[in-house]
Amino acid sequence: MKVLITGGCGFLGSNIAYNLKDKNYEIHILDNLSRLGSEQNLEWLKSNLSVQFHKADVRNAAEVESVFEAIMPDVIFHLAGQVAMTTSIQNPRLDFEINALGTLNMLESIRKYKRDCLIVYSSTNKVYGDLEKYNFTETELRYKVEEKPNGFDENETLDFHSPYGCSKGSADQYVLDFSRLFGIRGVVFRHSTIYGGRQFATYDQGWIGWFCQQALEIKQNPLREPFTISGNGKQVRDVLHADDAVRLYISVIDNIETMKGKVFNIGGGMSNSLSLLELFQILESELDIKMNYTRLEPRESDQKVFIADITKVTSATGWKPEVDRVSGVKKMLQWLQSSQPE
Question: For the domain that residue 252 is a member of, what is the CATH number?
Answer without folding.
Answer: 3.40.50.720
